[in-house]
Amino acid sequence: MSEERIVNIEAKITYQEDLIEELNKTVYQQQKRLDRLETAYATLVRQIESMAEAGSGGMPAHERPPHY
C-alpha cells in the first residue's frame, strides 16, 4: 500500500472515531431527557389518578352544576 492511501485510511478512522463519540454523547443526553420525561409522566399520572379519586364523590360529569 502506498503512504498516501494509509494516511487517507487513518484520517477516515479518526473522523469515524470522532463521529462515534459525538453520537454516543447525543444518545446519552437523549436517554437522560427520556428518563426525566418518564418520571414527569409518572408523576402526572399519579396526580390525575388522585384527583379523579378525590373528585369521584362529587357531582357526576354528565349533570349540570347547580348554578345553571
Rg from alpha-carbon coordinates: 28 Å
Amount of beta strand: under 5%
Count of beta strands:
0
Kindly state the percentage of residues in helix.
over 70%
**Biggest β-sheet description:** none
Regions with little confidence, pLDDT below 50 for 5+ residues: none
Helix count from the secondary structure assignment: 1
Tell the overall outline.
Answer: rod-shaped
Structural class by SSE content: mainly alpha
Termini distance? Answer: 89 Å
Give the integer mean of the pLDDT values: 90
If you had to describe this structure to a student in words, what would you say it looks like?
The chain is an all-alpha fold and 68 residues long. The chain has a domain at 1-47. Helix content is 78%, strand content 0%. It contains one helix and no strands. The chain has one helix at 3-55. The longest helix is centred in the middle third of the chain and has 53 residues, at 3-55. It is rod-shaped, with a radius of gyration of 28 Å. The termini are far apart. The relative contact order is 0.05. The model has no long low-confidence stretch (mean pLDDT 90).
